[in-house]
Amino acid sequence: MTPPDVAVTDVADPLAEAAPTMELLLRELDRRWPPEAERLHRISRYALLPAGKLLRPLLLMESAEAVGGGGPAVVPAALSVEYLHVGSLVHDDVIDGDAMRRGRPSVVARYGTADAIVTGDALMLGMFGVLTDGAEEAGGLPPGRVLAAVRVFARAGVDLCRGQAMEGELRGDLGCGLDRYLTMSSLKTGALFRAACRGGAILGGGTPAQQHALTAYAEHLGLAFQMHDDLLPYTSDPRTTGKSALSDIVAARPTFPVLLCHAMAGARGRARLEAALGGALPAADALRTVHELLETTGALDAARDQATAQAGRATSCLAELPRSRATAVLAAVADLSVSRDR
Amino acid sequence: MTPPDVAVTDVADPLAEAAPTMELLLRELDRRWPPEAERLHRISRYALLPAGKLLRPLLLMESAEAVGGGGPAVVPAALSVEYLHVGSLVHDDVIDGDAMRRGRPSVVARYGTADAIVTGDALMLGMFGVLTDGAEEAGGLPPGRVLAAVRVFARAGVDLCRGQAMEGELRGDLGCGLDRYLTMSSLKTGALFRAACRGGAILGGGTPAQQHALTAYAEHLGLAFQMHDDLLPYTSDPRTTGKSALSDIVAARPTFPVLLCHAMAGARGRARLEAALGGALPAADALRTVHELLETTGALDAARDQATAQAGRATSCLAELPRSRATAVLAAVADLSVSRDR
């Protein structure tokens, strides 16, 4: 997928342009979480570092810059989104019983349920403290903007929880329909993408129209990202993704390709799909069966196409903003969201 | 314990003076959490209503008024403290496996671990949204004050988590010493008391000296409250407290009277105490043994005396503030903290 011209600058590799931002984020993260004796701090550090993709902090930084207000002043806000994201992953792994995360033992597997719950809480609560740091440190953002960002992140956090609760309700329900899947994804995954971009636009002093454009970009990006994420167990190696390909099967999640397959398959294929996800087979056999059905029905290709279409729509939204290095990076992120292998 | 004159007005029953505040809080809580279809909302309502003692919201409201700035403008902030408190209780019950809370099934017992974790998260994250409402609604507090309150609550939330992690570390450790117990209590229980009072003082426009006085009041109140809480399994009926008297024993918590007993008992008593809390006896027998040791060593009386002393110190801190209905209520709360039976 090529991002439309309007949002792209003439740099050879737009994502490489994000390197200084990523280095700044990594340096700050490491500085703020030194190895330390207190248990909760150590577990938090384990959860945060080595860092993941830092996609949400990057979105916040680049969104702020896209409206003319990035730089060190928004770094605390960018990190705070990562804390919220990582805190929710720590709790996700408790809920799903996932033992692996980013290629190593998850927090719950390594430290147990009690510490995993408390660490997730501390990251989620602490983020609001870090966010308010932005009002004083590093340039001093206007308090009204920071307060608006607090509001955006609090609402996003609640939406994320609503999405997680909804994911629990949909578990095992292959007949839930694509609409409910899209609502769930928009809450569970989209919420933080939207908050990162909208928060960045607010902190960067963007106009309401710019805030709106970046929020719309994030909404489509979130869907593209989740749709592609759902494809990874069938398209990427667990050693690359860092988590078991069986997780979705074991949790009986109605993921995007599975729901498309359910809609596209005949009665016999649907029955096989339901049996595989209903726990009738050992997990590895179930994964093979589902994979085969996704291929034969064309659901895998259809899911890929729709993810790519969402990424394209995300990029189109950037046309509302002045062309810049930042919008090129944001377009490259949309591209990456459907081409990554982890 | 009689509060010192300086903080008391001439009303017959200072706590009765808090009735309009409590009614306002209850009305607002009920209005904001109507019965509703969405699962997460319903579970949140179950966790919040019928309401508990609403002690922390009351502290915030009265602290704001004590510095001349209470009323409807601080109601959102007052409720937000309750959301944080209840969210952490919901997670506590997951961690401890407690099936009862406020005399009925805990959230985890009724809805399961996944929904309990997500509901606790939503309450903790949502609190910051509610808190920022105060900047617009109901009188419109200055954004700088609300932002300062956000910072105070975020830090308190992290301290609360640090206290919970520390409680986990101290589990089963009767030799941990009173200092570590006091640090743990100051974090786990004191953090929200301090945040409620300091937050109220900030939002109410108090001077730094007034903020300091109310924070010191809250610190002593928190210790008094926790010390007295630790006594309840030995002094109050589970039908009154609403939770099992065995909880502390089963979790092998080094509570305040137990630690005093450990320090005051002879070698034989200490060995019996360690056996009882080490899982050597059925829980009900262990409770009886511990209770007997607390009586014979005088630890129960000593714990009661120290709790009362802390409550007295809390009240003394109020002397820094102008005498008012609010300071009388705060003094009465200190009194209540060590006389309540639940």
UniProtKB/TrEMBL annotation, chains A, B:
Obligatory cofactor(s): Mg(2+)
Domain of life of the organism encoding this protein: Bacteria
Xref: CDD domains: Trans_IPPS_HT (cd00685)
InterPro entries, per database record: Isoprenoid_synthase_dom_sf, Polyprenyl_synt, Polyprenyl_synt_CS
Alphabetical keyword list: Magnesium, Metal-binding, Transferase
Entry-linked Pfam families: polyprenyl_synt (PF00348)
Family: Belongs to the FPP/GGPP synthase family.
Name of this protein: Octaprenyl diphosphate synthase
